[in-house]
# Entry
Amino acid sequence: MLKPRFVTLTAVVLFAAIWRLVPHPWNLTPITAMALFAGAHFSSRRTAYALPIAVMVASNLILGQLYATAPFVLAAFILTVFVGTRLRKHRDVLSIGGSAVASALLFFVLTNFAHWLVATDYPKTGAGLGACFAAAIPFFRNQLLGDLGFTAVFFGGFAFLERRFPVLQDAPLSAPLKLLPR
# Structure
């Protein structure tokens, strides 16, 4: 029998996947927030890593998005899940917000470096790398807004649900959401 906590956490991850499939502003998606949330909340590390990656691969296939930088994108999400696992014992607003910003920056740097590395539209020079990053800056705004907004909704919403429905609370492995760090 599936536990209510697992079903609810999985529903959050599936919501993120569905959001990715419907029309939305460019880069305004809950995918990074979903990876961070999964790392922080699933008690099984295997599930915390496997479910977000499976959702990304499945949604890429549904969207027909097969691209050369996909391994770098998946690596960014694996690293984001890892960042999320660091939140298990220190779940406060500042730590969560800082982790969301760090994850957005990690994704931005890794995926844009990958684009420069594998694509032919920028020369393989320092100036070419700089031009690649400069061209990506306008897309970062929506990414950061999406990452911060969806992180707040996922973490805050689930904290509310845990308080309202004690059956959703995890064993002492995870800390409750706090407003300020200790």
